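Note on ligand handling. Small-molecule inputs were canonicalized before submission; formal charges were left as drawn, and no protonation-state enumeration was performed. Where a ligand contained multiple stereocentres, the stereochemistry in the source SMILES was retained. For zinc ion, this procedure yielded the string shown in the input block below.
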Amino acid sequence: MSECSTCGSEMKKGFIQSGTRLAWVPKPAKFSVEPSLNKESVLLSNQNRFSINIVDAFLCEGCKRVLIDFSDKGV
Ligand SMILES: [Zn+2]
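Structure output:
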């Protein structure tokens, strides 16, 4: 369970999935669909056995915001 830090209502737990790895990066990669990973970037997604990249995410429908929880990254 997670509450929205903006409005305080309960956020809906779900996932974001992608064909490429998902990462927070300071700048987007210009010539690649994959994020360019360096010491500043944070890899967010785990890959399942079908090579689908998945990360836990919480949705606030009221604020139109998505909160990504990457605390279990690598588990
Ligand atoms: Zn909210």
